[in-house]
Amino acid sequence: MKTIVHLFCWLFLAVSVQAEISVQPPNLDSHPPLVKPKPSEREAVHLSNRFLEYFHYKPRKLNDDFSADILTAYLEALDPNRSYFLQSDIDSFSAYKNQLDEAIRDSDVTPPFAIFNVYIERVRQRVKKALDYLQQPMDFSKDETYRFDRTEAPWAKNEAALDEIWRKRVKNDWLNLKLAGKEDDKIRELLKKRYTYLYKRVSGLDADRIFQMFMNAWTESIEPHTGYMSPRATETFNINMRLSLEGIGAVLQNDNDLTKVVRVVKGGPADKQGELKAGDRIVGVKQEDEEEFTDVVGWWLDDVVDLIRGPKNTRVSLQILPADSGLDGPVKTITILRDKVKLEDQAAKARLLQFDDEQGQSHKIGVIYLPAFYLDFAGRARGEPDYRSTTRDVRKLLEQLKALKVEGIVMDLRNNGGGSLLEANQLTGLFIDQGPVVQVRNQRGAVDVQGDDDPGISWDGPLAVLINRNSASASEIFAAAIQDYGRGLVLGENSFGKGTVQDLINLDRYAGNDKPELGQLRLTMAQFFRINGGSTQLKGVKPDLDYGTLQNHKPIGERAFKNPLPWMQIQPADYQPWPQKPQTWVETLAEKHRQRAEKNPAWQALLQEWKTYWESQDDTTVSLNLEKRKAEWDENEARRKAGKEKVRALHEASHVVMLQLNAEGKPEPLDSAIPLPEPDAKPGSGNEKKTRDETDDADLILEESARVVADLAGLLSGSQPQVARKQ
Length: 727
Description:
The protein is an alpha+beta fold. The chain has three domains: about 210 residues, no CATH class; about 100 residues, Roll (Pdz3 Domain), CATH 2.30.42.10; about 240 residues, Alpha-Beta Complex (2-enoyl-CoA Hydratase, Chain A, domain 1). β17, α16 and β18 form a beta-alpha-beta unit. α15 packs parallel to α16. It starts with 10 loop residues before the first strand and ends in a 10-residue tail after the last helix.
């Protein structure tokens, strides 16, 4: 399922002993054993219901409508691509439509297990049919198409309809491997293992996992950031949080039968290697001492993670479908050296951009790249004088940039998913004197106004905050505060829109259990509000100057989740706006940007690449004709490579010098160890390893932001005339 049902399955890839995955053929001729709930799960339901009813920020009353939504969410969690259940199954499950609310109140968990036992039988039938299809000849000369995304398709009316879906699925899987250069015997063997594992993983599920799926269907029907972790998932979560800074440095999520990269940890091994991107799908894994890749299509996320994990200084190779490639695209192979993600690699970094404007005037703009709002809580609690924090690091970088006499600062928060709320408050304080930064409203309606109490400003010059659709939570708080004060401009894309606060509830603690039996509940307890009274929830932060890269009609960010909490507004806080509001010149700056963009072929090529990418995301079918499929494949690959080369070649004429600041604050050429921020699913990424002498869309966007700040500096100083807006 593509929603937050898998919230707690997102894992950092840490050091662990590699797991051996058994693929011994199961007995497909007999019905699988029935799975029954555990007695402890009744108590988990009882306690969870109490917390959700009395402590959730926006509790939802258990009634028939809620019951129907839970049933729908649970069925989608089990069969997201509508490939197993028949319409007759869905009709029979409708008996639970108005019963799950009573079952929850009675702590009765038998209904979800009854549904799951039907699901196991349907999986057995489908796998048996798929293995039969593998023995039949494949005719790729027919002009057929396969719908690989069935999330919005109707349920199959009968077994004949489902058989046809699976015939095409097997044919599509075979064709993908054939295009990848594999021989027929190898394809048959590989797909047999893939389908066999599919049944083994489902039939081997224990009560904890089934219960967790149902619980998350329940909590997801309230809002997307509330969830449940079973005792086993809680243990895994805790281990991964302790070890989260070792491994390849990536966060993964199940996406139907594929393992999707949600985020690449900044400064980690995968980030330094440079090829793995958010949105990539992992389809194969190989250790450095192995000859062949292990196919992981259809695997549980935990099992994929176990394969990718490994000791420091060992290599793991991944086969991936790139984010900007369709499911029928070519598989790309990358190799990553496992290592430890060091704190300094994730810390704020400064860069210096030097360029001439259209009139030949030279400019120097400072950039502070901030991948997260971090704070060494333990060091701070121990009273260590040199504990690490975002605000301390940025303050030092600002002093270094001031010594270089920069005209303005760009705070680069693209792909910054948040972190410490305290740091968001204190970092804002480096750019304002004193005042509120964020308002936090709890479930009872009480509002806590938090902000900067420290007098003094580290930088009072021209300022811009660069965000994208993955800038979330603390990033949105900082950007919104800078915007509300009129302290600086917000540039880029609309942000993610996560404006809620969660806390973990250990159910065993409240049950008085000495041993973990009940798991944990992740509960949304509060909501963030801007100092102007609006919320960052759902709407996110709208940039003052939008670069137009989100050319997509589908919702993204928080708006893409089911049941997101609505945008709300409360009374504004008492704050004093900045005397020289940059927003005064937004129209003039936007016109200057537009004129530059129209004259910049690289920028136009970039926007075209984004447009093509977003349009390709609407495709849900592929051809099963070998010649057509290969032609489409070659055409798409040629387009992607040509697009990237065009952007790179055109960008070489921009004449922007980008330097990094070393430990002493001296500018020097960029080192390959310092990552450039990458938007997720970036179009045009090639198969070659990224090097520092190459340029990409991240550079273009950052450089244009520096030019906007230079324009702003001229307007604030009165040295630049305003440009009349084109009619």
